[in-house]
Amino acid sequence: MLSLSWLGLGQVAASPWLLLLLVGVSWLLARVLAWSYSFYDTCCRLRCFPQPPKQSWFWGHLGLVHPTEQGLRVLIQLVAAYSQGFLWWMGPIYPILRFFHPKFVAPLLQAPATIVPRDTFFYRFLRPWLGDGLLLTAGDKWSHHRRLLTPAFHFEILKSYVKIFNKSAHIMHVS
Question: 117-126: b or e for each residue (b if 16 or more CB lie within 10 Å)?
């Protein structure tokens, strides 16, 4: 045993608690380093996309577009300035790509669900309310649910409802 009584620590030994603490700190450091490298790699990949000026380094683009008529005008100006799409930062660490041009949007909409990943950050807040439906699932479960649901929206089935859709749209438009 090593005695460090002159430091006020008493008898110091390699206790299981100290080893567990060392393993925990090492694991946490490894996670932080892995996340840091992943974030750096993401930032390097996103450098090719234009982005409007940020509000601040911490808030990113939050607060640039308000839910008012003036905010909608700002958004229209952004779409006019960046007609293909742009990079939008939600705070300092969460990037969102916003695409507007059909040549960028079409491949994303036509890609299979197994290729295009779901955004788990926003969708995880909806899971307690919506469960594991078509919106929140991915992979094989999504494909199965989609195959079950697709026949209900076949063109021939929806044909008989066009008059009702038009009448409802007219009512909402007039009101």
Answer: eeeeeeeeee
- DSSP label at residue 56: B
Q: Could you tell me the residue ranges of all domains in the chain?
A: 14-48, 49-110, 115-175
Looking at the predicted structure, is the pLDDT value of residue 116 above 70?
no
Q: Which residue has the tokens 């293909």?
A: 84
Of 115, 148, 80, 50, whose CA–CA distance to 61 is shortest?
50
pLDDT category at 32 given cuts 50, 70, 90 is: very high
| Tens digit of each residue's pLDDT (9 = 90 or more) over 6-20 | 555 555 556 788 888
CA distances from 152 to 72, 117, 146, 148 (A): 36, 25, 10, 8
